[in-house]
From TrEMBL:
The keyword Disulfide bond applies. Residues 28-151, 161-294 form the FZ domain. InterPro entries: Frizzled/SFRP (IPR015526), Frizzled_dom (IPR020067), Frizzled_dom_sf (IPR036790). One of its GO terms (cellular component) is plasma membrane. This is FZ domain-containing protein. GO terms for biological process: canonical Wnt signaling pathway; non-canonical Wnt signaling pathway. The keyword Signal applies. Residues 1-20 form the signal peptide.
Length: 298
């Protein structure tokens, strides 16, 4: 009798364990769509939700952030209108809320081919390689039975402008700045005001939180450096000083963590990028970049 009771108990425990494991698997694979938070994709692609894990087995957007970090400059420089779409949809596949399915949409094969044909040479020149999971042939076409993230029409405008031009700064966040002119391309090689506008607006909730009175000064000077014609016309712009960045990072780190779902402080605002007010910052071409502190009373 005791032996039979033991077998029954063992069977019940085993069944319970199996059911618990099955429930855990179901819960891990039927997660709801989550909002795209990674800054190189957020608001810059034509969808707002994703579901992980992706085909690289990333389970968090922080992992995706670090994986996309080396590709960020190439997205910004605009070698292709489709590179950002391709990489974001590959690492953060599109998810449609409310649809009871585990399916997510990867980039279309044509999106991949357009991005690689325009950016392949310059990316290869800088030592980045396409991983096996990035092979275009593994992606679907435009079949009606399959859904994928389609490409945009490539523009012929000159995206990689080399000459720095000063122009009125139209960004809404920057209209109260002490300097009214900004320069493009910016230090991140961005020359598309629409993309810059979307990216800087990602920080609106932080600005409105009042975590730092210097946050908007840092953002405006970073994304569209101030045009202040000084003694040298060869260097017509200035960026915020490192000390401004350090104060903002100290004052706003918690607000950034909350607003961005725990993602790390963005590399574009890493303070070592900016010169100190005590010295000029020497660039690779031996030119120096002066910096600006907020004017007294600003």
């Amino acid at each position: 009798m005791t032996w039979r009771l033991f077998l029954v108990t063992l069977t019940l425990l085993t069944t319970h364990r199996i059911l618990a494991q099955e429930e855990e698997i179901v819960n891990s694979t039927t997660s709801e769509c989550e909002e795209v938070m990674v800054p190189m994709c957020r608001g810059l692609v034509e969808y707002n939700y994703t579901r992980l894990p992706n085909r690289f087995n990333h389970t968090t957007q922080e992992q995706v952030y670090w994986a996309l970090q080396p590709w960020w400059p190439f997205m910004d420089m605009g070698c292709s209108d489709n590179l950002r779409i391709f990489l974001c949809a590959l690492y953060l596949p599109r998810c449609t809320p409310g649809i009871p399915t585990l399916a997510t949409d990867l980039p279309c094969r044509k999106t991949c081919k357009k991005a690689k044909s325009r950016c392949g040479a310059i990316i290869g020149h800088h030592g980045l390689t396409w991983e096996e999971e990035m092979t275009c042939e593994t992606l679907s076409g435009f079949k009606k039975s399959q859904s994928c993230v389609k490409p945009k029409r490539e523009t012929n405008k000159k995206r990689r402008q080399q000459i720095i031009e000063c122009q009125p700064n139209p960004l809404p966040m920057c209209q109260h700045m002490p300097y009214t002119l900004g320069s493009l391309p910016n230090p991140f090689l961005q020359n598309d005001l629409d993309e810059i506008g979307v990216e800087i607006q990602q920080y609106t909730s932080m600005v409105e939180s009042g975590c730092s009175t210097r946050l908007s000064f840092l953002l405006c000077g970073a994304f569209m450096p101030f045009c202040i014609h000084g003694p040298s016309q060869d260097q017509p712009y200035v960026v915020p000083c490192r000390e401004v960045c350090q104060q903002v990072q100290h004052d706003c780190r918690r607000q950034f963590h909350d607003a961005w779902g725990g993602l790390p402080w963005p590399s574009k605002l890493h303070c070592h990028r900016y010169p100190s007010h005590t010295s000029n910052y020497l660039q690779d071409d031996n030119t120096t970049v002066p910096c600006s502190m907020p004017p007294v009373g600003f």
